[in-house]
Amino acid sequence: MKLNTFFIRLCHLTTAVCAGVVAGGEQSNSRLAAKVRADVADSIQIDETERTWRFIVIHHSATDSGSVESIHRDHRSRRDRSGRPWLGIGYHFVIGNGSGMADGQISPTFRWKQQLHGAHSGSLPHNSQGIGICLIGNFENSKPTPAQHAAVTELIRQIVRHYNIEMGNIIGHSNVRATACPGRYFPLRDVIQDSTRSVTVTDPIYSFTVHSGQLSRY
Question: Is 129 helix (H, G, I), strand (E, B) or coil?
């Protein structure tokens, strides 16, 4: 597969945005965009040969707090069925809930940056061809924050757009193996429907650019 540089620029949602969503209910993109920070999150940059991705598998951390670093430490202590230690965090992206990471913050892990297989599903095809997204929180007890919901929806939308992933291949961890993950209060159906709707590339809240070929870095 040709070498691409793949940029996703995702805005962090502020506390004011979250409060506005909760207090005001449904709002138009333009109204929500007015509450979003002007500065954009760091680019997610790939300078590796892209893998062939077919699935998106959604998880929750089943903890009240967490971060890429805390999950990485935990996963490094694990071993596979052959007794070999894990490389580290098994997910490709982690989305914070305000405890350990900023609320709605999307952090790519080394597996995404290096286009490595995942270690998150318990299924070989879903690990080798599935992008693992973990949201911090225990969604057996409560729903994701509004900022997390917005972030995961847009992240999936842009991944689907770039890799042409079928709607039916956006799944929760429980669709792969017997587990409660990503939790009974995770709005999987809503996230799938919202993330697969047709949107313009220059969304007022998030912007996305794909550069084909070998390009210079910013």
Answer: coil
Which SS3 state, helix, strand or coil, does residue 95 take? strand
Within a domain: 145: yes
Rounded distance between C-alpha atoms, residue 74 and residue 89, angstroms: 8
Residue type, 153: T
The answer to whether residue 65 is domain-embedded is yes
Q: Where are the beta strands (DSSP E) in the chain?
A: 4-9, 55-60, 93-95, 106-108, 130-135, 170-172, 207-212
Q: Which secondary structure element, helix H or strand E, spans residue 16, and what is its range? A: helix 15-24
CATH number of the domain residue 103 falls in: 3.40.80.10
**Is 45 within a domain?**
no
172: Cα separation from own chain's centroid: 12
Give the C-alpha distances (Å, rounded to integers) separating 55 from 92, 101, 143, 152.
12, 25, 23, 15
Note down the domain range covering 62.
52-199
39 located within any domain: no
- E strands present in 83-124: 93-95, 106-108
**What's the rounded Cα separation, in Å, for the pair 37 and 166?**
32
Residue located via tokens 């159906």: 189
Q: How far apart are CA 178 and CA 44, in angstroms?
A: 32
pLDDT tens readout for residues 54-86: 999 999 999 999 999 999 988 887 777 778 887
Between 131 and 41, the higher pLDDT residue: 131
Counted domains in the chain: 1
pTM of the full structure = 0.74
CA-CA distance, 134 to 120, in Å (whole number)? 9
